[in-house]
Amino acid sequence: MSEQPMVAVQDLKVRFKRGGQTLAAVNGVNLSVARGEVLALIGESGSGKSVTLRALMRLHAERSTRIEGRIEIAGQNLMALSRRQLQALRGPVAAMIFQEPLLALDPVYTIGQQIIETLRRHRPMPRAAAREAALEALRSVRIPSPEQRLDAYPHEMSGGMRQRAMIALALACQPKLLLADEPTTALDATVQIQILILLRELQQALGLSIIFVTHDIAAAVEVADRIAVMYGGRIVEQAPLAELLNNPQHPYTRVLLGTRPKDGLRKGERLVSIPGAPPDLANLPAGCAFAPRCPQASDLCRSEVPAIEAVLADHSVCCHHWNRLPI
Amino acid sequence: MTQRDIGGPAQPLLRVEKLLKHFPTKGGLGKRRVVRAVDGIDFVVRKGETLGVVGESGCGKSTTARLLMQLIQQDSGELVFDAMAVGGHQLPLREYRRQVQMVFQDSYSSLNPRLTMEQAVAFGPSVHGVSQREALQRARDLLGRVGLEPTRFAGRYAHELSGGQRQRVNIARALAVEPRLVILDEAVSALDKSVEAQVLNLLLDLKASLQLTYVFISHDLHVVRYLSDRIMVMYLGEIVEVGPTQALFSAAQHPYTQALLTSMPSMDPGNRTRVSPLSGDPPSPIDPPPGCRFHTRCPHAEAVCAQAAPQLTTTGDHHYAACLMVQPGAGHSQSPPAGLIYTGASA
Q1: How far does chain B reach from its first CA to its final CA, in angstroms?
Q2: Predicted ipTM?
Q3: Given A114, A289, B263, B319, which residue has the most CB atoms within 10 angstroms?
Q4: Cα→Cα distances A324→A23, A249, A251, A305, A314, Å
Q5: How confident is the model at residue B112, as a pLDDT?
Q6: What element of type H or E holds B18?
């Protein structure tokens, strides 16, 4: 990767203060996304995947959040940006879509008004031209009869249509980076696949970089070039899609893949299962966060956080015993 | 354990006949409209099986679950539990609810925050006349059975447990009155994948050791396939297909079932889904389309599909689909000729 990456994150740490507690939500994340690359961040609730994504737009409330580490987006040091510079970045450089469009869209404005406002805020243009551009944005996400939908309110649309409208809104200012936070989780199966295919087609047509956060590894397989698996606020394994699926090294990745075997779950077979639940972010264990649930854990795992080791040039894993695990 | 199998193994545990539930929409001026949530469905749950129920939002699967549990009253139709009419003198509602229990999706809101876990599990049996002491003993046994060490968990409250642990308590509570049928309404959908696997294994173990029958409702076809003996597919308040799991996955008859199966992500990066099998969202169950309700999204729809409502037609052993293309003489260009019916084993 000689070219400058779209996103470069080094040793990102995010802490929330809640009540008297400090939640260690992200504990040293390193990642990089090339231009035109799709990275899927997968993990369970509390793994830090959404917190990492939101940190990339500095969406966390500044008073109760402490962010450490370095975040660069399109070469800009995000932590050093002023409020005004940040606003210039949100939209034209990086845009975000969310799980629940009904909450992300403003209920009192039509879809058209919301897209037009965004467009005119970043690029002064006459109202008529903005309306034409908004119409084009709706066409690009293949909303049927876009002329009518432009004047529709979010509640007048179906779930899949709203998700398309939110994607249109996010892409209206032609960002280079799309941050997608569980965009298909709330959708029905037959609608989910439509949105996944749409995202993939838009990504290819526009050369977008995408960070796609999901708990569903199967959805990630449909869109991602590379997968990063998160657990307890750290990336425990990262590799190109096929490599990760065929050659998983971290015990947690293996468990995740075991819940979704390629040829489907077979009736009668027992599921691969591990005891316990994801860790409490207010009381993370001293060593590897997965150690209390890991069948291969040793004393070393319980006392020291494993370093990131390279399996291959583009495949890294964070486990003391990765090269000694049974296959 | 009081009375058990009454009608013998061939008698379905639960027979659902012409079950119908419409909800009036609230407010609005002028015409009142109704949500046709469950629109006259017939099916059976056999003794000892797991019947999977799948469908998208608005298909009526959760309303069906609530009707089966009699949490809401049907507008019309009947439930027959082991040959006894539910709500009649043979099987009063109170007795029926001892035999049928339910586990909900939201493990937190389905537990009383002011009860300890042992009190929560003991509550049902004591309502049904078991002494307090015995009910608490039974609760502790059950907590152990669902994998929660009673000495550690009996005195805890719902907020002190993780999602997976709470769902185990909900399962223990459902089992506390020794039901024969357990309705699992999206019971693992809110759990993380690594925890979901634990709970699915637990459900399988309990079913085998207690000879339970499950109705397993989920939007996740992977999980339904893993657990179910038969699968019932619903669309806009109606059953579109029902059949043995294997047959349904290998030879789905209804275009909607086929689309649902094709919509499952492949887990194979070399073979990604290129074309979505359907466009658009499921229509609203308010004013569903006339004729076959799926015709507005169906790739094989013809003019006749907007007029004639298809009937569930047998297409193989214990396999039924409601589509004009499998219904003899129905007028679709693919319909088999009139009089031709599948002559294998009957249902």
Answers
A1: 31
A2: 0.85
A3: A289
A4: 33, 10, 11, 17, 20
A5: 95
A6: strand B14-24
What's the length of chain A? 327
What is the chain B residue with the closest CA to A160? Answer: B281
Beta carbons of A255 and B194 less than 8 angstroms apart: yes
Q: What is the pLDDT of residues A52-72, one digit of tens each?
A: 999 999 999 988 999 999 999
Structural domain count, chain B: 1
8 Å CB contact of B193 and A265: no
Q: Does B335 touch chain A (CB under 8 A)?
A: no
For residue B84, give its domain range.
14-25+33-234
Cβ contacts (< 8 Å) between B276 and chain A: which residues? 190, 193-194, 197
- Cβ-based neighbours of B307, under 8 Å, separated by 6 or more: B290, B291
Reply yes or no on whether the pLDDT at B343 is more than 90.
no
What DSSP designation does B312 have?
P
CATH of the domain at B153: 3.40.50.300
| Tokens read off for B270 | 């070399």
CA proximity to B217, closest of B101, B50, B92: B50
Topology classification of domain A7-93+175-324: Rossmann fold (3.40.50)
pLDDT tens-place string over residues A20-34: 889 999 999 999 999
Q: Kindly state the tokens that stand for B248.
A: 């349904």
Contact B159/A at CB under 8 A: no
The Cβ-side half-sphere exposure at B107, using a 13 Å CA radius, reads: 26
